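Z., the sequence and structure:
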Amino acid sequence: MSNVIVQFRKRGESPTLEETRAMFDLDPDQVDPEFGVVRTDSQEGLYTILVDPTAQAQVEEKLRLTGADTDPAVGIFSNPRIEPFGPPLDAMDE
């Protein structure tokens, strides 16, 4: 099962991965360190992390407790696998 996307708001400085883990009480193995914390909208203070699906309920509860779950830009989003559509480009030249 692939990781899920968590988008959240944070005003001020960009959060580190450790700060973000602390915000959601996540263990190191519940967050994808290679993905890190990605700023998705600096003006709105939106950031994204990838978390293990087993942590989804925990993150949703944290968002609910802070009232952030009412914000349509904040929450859990699917992370579908992206694959090519159609034949490879070099096969089309033949």
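Residues 31 and 51 are 4 Å apart (CA to CA). The chain is about 25% helix and 20% strand.

Let me know what you think.
H.
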